Amino acid sequence: MGCYNPPPGFSDPKHSGKVLRLNKALYGLKQAPRAWNARLDQELKKLGFNRSLEKHAVYRKGTCSTLILVGVYVDDLIICGPDSKGIAEFKQQMKKSFDMSDLGLLSYYLGLEVKQKPIEIIVCQSAYGEKIVEISGMKGCNPVDTPMEQHIKLLPGKPELVANATKFRSLVGSLRYLVNSRPDLAYSVGMVSRFTETPNSEHWGAMKRIIRYVAGTIKLGCRYVKGHILS
Questions:
Q1: By C-alpha distance, which of 164, 150, 166 is closest to 206?
Q2: pLDDT tens-digit profile of 78-123?
Q3: CA dihedral (43, 45, 47, 49) positive or negative
Q4: pTM to 2 decimals?
Q5: CA distance linking residue 159 with residue 100, whole number of Å
Q6: 123 closest CA partner among 181, 80, 175
Q7: pLDDT in tens, 167-192
Q8: Phi, psi at residue 212, to the nearest 5°?
Q9: Which CATH number does 32-104 carry?
């Protein structure tokens, strides 16, 4: 693979007009994600961490007061646990192996907004919820007090099918992710999820009601307090 013009910032009069050969790509190699994951896995295990059998992106070390949990998403790590001294030591060990930055307390991660206080942690997805309302085309809609009508029975088949079933499936997927911080949506989203194959106008109506409910409760989330959990 080559090009007839040198890249910007590079010029060599002695070799003008010659083809440049690409020796190695810096980004986009197919094996790069696998190689990075293998390297990170190796380093974490070297430091005494064990990978979860249920969630391969979660590692743990120690028990009770010495427990350290590490969540992995590509090259981002979430580190948590009661042992602050052990966490600080772990960060220093990782800095010896990788060029990494400590961003402090977690505030945003994969659409999850996290507010940490001395006695409580609040997790919500208000920005993600607003995005769902916007992409559904229902921005500025009238909100409702409940995500689903009482005694409603959603069935497959009639009435007429939804013209854009792909959009219906996409919104269902987005709402299912929103359930991570909105357990009040779990039942209604679970109901419309049953009809992603051939959604009809009634299913779409139920979906729109969920989105209208989300629009009116955009700031809701989960509040974790020491000793008990409140939603």
A1: 150
A2: 999 999 999 999 999 999 999 888 988 899 988 899 999 888 999 9
A3: positive
A4: 0.75
A5: 56
A6: 181
A7: 999 999 999 999 999 999 999 999 99
A8: -65, -35
A9: 3.30.310
